[in-house]
Amino acid sequence: MKKNSWMILLFLLGFSILVYPHIAQWINDYLQKEQVHQFRTELEEKSLEEIEQLMEKAQQCNEKIYYDHNGFRDPFGDNEEKLHQFQECLGIHDETMFGAIEIPKLKLVVPIYLGATDDILSKGIGQVEGSSIPIGGEGTHTVLAGHRGMGTKEMFRNIDELNEGDFFYIHTMNESLTYQVYKQQIIYPDETDSLEIEEKQDLATLLTCHPYRHNYQRLLIHGERAN
To answer: Which residues are catalytic?
Structure first.
């Protein structure tokens, strides 16, 4: 009897270890989707004028980025200085959610924050300092970074499954932007030419560490505006 009890206990322990990551990931995915839902609910309480003013500020910030572009800092390095510049430009804080990214192929919906510090990347997707604020428009190129191996948080773990022709969406405060994947690329952290802003182009690039569970390269998913 005692032997059977130990066998049952060991079975339950093994089963718990096996299913825990899946359950924890499901919970985290659910909580992130709830954050996005709460974000949209709070937007409904804001006046149209307030949202338009913030979008106008963001557009002005993007114009400054376009003309005073000083290059990127790797999102998995120290970006505190540039982050403060973005916050001052828009008058928001780093805990303020700015939008959401949706990738239907991966069934993924994750909050977007401005900046790509360790704190931001631990709770969502971060806009890389030196790239455009994700509101779209000609002469913009937003680069969105996310971790790939955060245990029970999916983030950008599976973006390598995105291929040419696939779509992802950036939901801002006043519209949804559709981007179509046109290229997948692997680079080293200092190879940033493909992340530059291009005149009259509306681009968005998803960025994460590569290979999975390592960080000596970067995986890029390049998208161009489709709507």
So the answer is: 147, 209
